[in-house]
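Supplementary Text 2. Reproducibility record for the structural model of the 939-residue chain.

All settings were left at their defaults, and a single model was retained for analysis rather than an ensemble. We include the record here because the model underlies the residue-level annotations in Supplementary Table 4.
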Amino acid sequence: MFGMSEHLQITRLPIAYDPDLGAESRALVAGLTQDTGQLIAGAAGSSPYLRRLIEQEAPWIGDALTAPKRALAAVFDDCRALAPDQLKPGLRKAKRRVALLTALCDLSGGWSLEEVTTALTNFGALSADVAIKAEIAALIRRKKLPGLTEADVETAGGLSILAMGKMGAYELNYSSDIDLICLFDETRFDPADFFEARQGMARATRNMCTTLSDRTADGYVFRTDLRLRPDPSVTPACLSMEAAERYYESLGRTWERAAYIKARPCAGDLAAGEAFLKTLRPFVWRRHLDFAAIQDAHDMRLRIRENKGTGGPITVPGHDMKLGRGGIREIEFFTQTRQLIAGGRDEGLRLRGTVEGLAALAEKDWIPPEVATRLSAHYRSHREVEHRIQMVHDAQTHQMPNSAEGIARVACLMGEDPAEVQAQIHHRLVEVHELTEDFFAPDAGVGPQPVIPDGFDENVIARWRSYPALRSERGAQIFDRLKPELLNRLARTAKPAESLLALDGFLAGLPAGVQLFSLFEANPHLLDLLVDIVGTSHELAGFLSRNSGVFDAVIGGSFFEDWPGGAVLRQELEAVLALEADYETQLDAARRWCKEWHFRIGVHHLRGLLDAKAAGTQYSELAEAVIQALFPRVVRQFSIKHGPPPGSGPIVIAMGSLGAGQINARSDLDIIVVYDPKDVEMSQGRKALATRAYYARLTQALITALSAPMSQGRLYEVDMRLRPSGNKGPVATSWSAFTHYQENEAWVWEHLALTRARGVAGEPQLMQDFESFRRSVIARQRSQDTVLAEVVHMRDRLAAAKSPSGVWDAKTGAGRMMDIELVAQAGALLAQSPYRDVAGGLEQAVAGGWLDAADALVLQQAYALYWSVQTAARLLSGDVLDQNAIGEGGALFLSRSAGYDGLDHLEQALQEAYKTCAAIISRSLQKETGHADAGGTGS
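Retained model, structure tokens:
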């Protein structure tokens, strides 16, 4: 617990305010060196409280100063060995020694602030632990805790004491209350014994507090404060953990969340306390960046100033070093509020200590490093001043004295001149106030209404107050502060009136506004991104309305960094899911995580940070990471009821665009599931299933995991029509049935589809077997005429089944994406090539002699153009692009994404490309097969 550095390293010494009294105390203590003698004299001559302690502990303190940490450890050992009837006097004697020794080590500079507060905190925890266990032992002996035995004393019968505030953070000050919350694990008791157990636990808690806080002839140990517990005016001194959890889930407030940043189990049943704090994580650490906490913290600051009368100007005499302007609480609020904002997303910010919290915030770029350094230094200095104020009379005060004598005594304990001390304190208070005040929402209310720029429809702006996001007074107040800057930024867009209407649609769709508006207020640069999105992409803007929390990711630090790749994505998602114990919450966590990455890809594409091809690859890697992380969890969840997968387990095979590694923002996932039962006929579980039924229902569970709408929406739509026998076949196919079908029954188009298939998740050996089999099927000798004739028929059927919706439908129709993909797949199949991409397939068609090299280059370039149009279009408007609805911003993005100056030029290029590519494909197929086909019209 303590380092065993023996000697006290004295780096400073107090000055005796009353030298005669100091000399008298020094004479009482034997064995002092010149420095330790001056330390005793200075402390006793300036602090009546320390002088009294020195007189009481004179035979002990001289030796203790020769090896203070060893002496402190011995005091702790004596406390642990106290008999129950000796607790009160024994703990009070220990408190005297701990208080005296830590004060002298503090005044001498031999111990750092952290060493001092840790020693005080550890003594507080030890005192509570021995006191509560003595009470629990007495109740067990008297049969007042049903079902418990003497063996339960070690864990206090399931009663856990949470250290709150400074005690929780190892920051206990010199004359502090200890803030405790006492909870008991109700699962240790039979439900019929609950009320008797609760009564006993409450009695034990009250008796513990009496043991610690009663003043006797020997003094007191600690004043205990239980008022941080839920609803203290009506609840017992000790609550059940289940009742406390229900309270925080339904009624917990921001100040209680802030309090739990520092909470930790310190006494009693430590394991139960840790388990309880784990259940509270979602309450304390919100999943989204919680900028609304700024306003809550600001409101708390104003209430404290009003209630405590600490809101006046900064003058050192009489100033409250804790609650006054520029004081300790300002630094704590500044730190804790930022931790609350971002700690839900970043566990590295969940630190109890104020100085550690500031360092972590600086490391994560939430505050400038120089601000963290200055506030940390001022925090330490403030705490040392606070300690010296309290040392004078052991008073629970944080106020600088008003009198000259009082200030002089504090200065003497610091070993400095009173005027110099006042100047230093004033400087620190002013600088803390300046560094922290601007962070919080301004004291002033809503200012004058902004001037509405020319060309804006005032009726549109007037109706904003009726939207759900602005109906709450708080949301409206924050938005009114944002409105002038927001309107100014809209006025600077290419089409302000159009951007205003787009923003109007965004605001209308927001279910709530406080969090998002607070985020914008704290990060004004996000307004540019919002204006960009609402003015360009209806799809992203609509998505944002429904999922405004994804804006968190933009300020998470890594939003604009390079793409990490599929492997890193999967590791990150695995870590996110590992934090959730419940299957349903895992599915929601996956949705939330996926939406943020999906949004990031869209924003990067929108802003020109990546092209359509890179966007397609990233969307595909994201989907693959989701499948890979979720599929094992789907299997585990399904296995709880029905047992583990019979045989060697299933695999998920990606088909179509996902198999080729290129999808867009709105793509379905084309997948099939294959399993190898190994002749096992039934699963082994509570509700065993026949193997075929097992895998069919497991596949349905996977589809549900990916596509079911939950509180965070859905992940993807799933399409399984490419499985053997299409919609008529089973949703999951056995390995033997799959291989038999592909070898004996599959149509040519199914072998064409196989050229793009890829195993993405599941049993590793079966995935290897699948890839080997896929290659063997593709490697078969085939008649070129037969394959190409089948391609002609497929083009005819596609043309008859679905016509393109217009010029902006780059996917369906002659000479368009699916047409070129069909040619590329034929090229790969005939060349027995395992490659899945379009460019590789076209090269194989050239090598096969049935496609001209120049024509292949035209098709490849056209396909790249189509892909850029298709990917941008899906980001702009979802399914069908309406040129008249995408607006100026959308038109610019669509043109830029395709590499053209404007929509007119792009439209002309598309029309020509469709016609040219359709003619090339028809000509190439007709030359080889002698068949004309319907696809050759090139419309």
